[in-house]
């Protein structure tokens, strides 16, 4: 069940990419996968997606080869979702969205939602893709992530609200 529209008739890589990941819910699902979520319920809690919406996005990501399902329970049959190499290769786009959002979509007093420390030198990279301390280009595997207490509280509040439903 791949998300497609008329852009599949184009050679434009931007249009083709948007076919795969071009909506809010898909981007939020990918964010959760990059943050380590593998279970449906946690992704639903943190994205706010309805079960139907989340199911359709996960199926589309799986059909496109960005995500793979792996069973973690036989009775009842339940799956975890894991990024494939193709899924991980999309990470720089999410990282760029984060940097743009931290710069342009927040109040200055909010601080960074997620801090990334360059493992090699131990310095915070801020929103850069090159470590400002040592000048080395960084990828996700080079970074240690920690979420701010404010963002952690927000995520915890979502879990608690979901449990009360």
Automatic annotation (TrEMBL):
Keyword Kinase in record: no
Family matches, as Pfam families: HxlR (PF01638)
Gene3D superfamilies: Winged helix-like DNA-binding domain superfamily/Winged helix DNA-binding domain
Keyword set includes Transmembrane: no
GO MF annotation: an example: DNA binding
Protein keywords: DNA-binding, Transcription, Transcription regulation
InterPro entries: HTH_HxlR (IPR002577), WH-like_DNA-bd_sf (IPR036388), WH_DNA-bd_sf (IPR036390)
HTH hxlR-type domain segment(s): 12-109
The protein's name: Transcriptional regulator
Lineage of producing organism: Bacteria, Pseudomonadati, Pseudomonadota, Gammaproteobacteria, Pseudomonadales
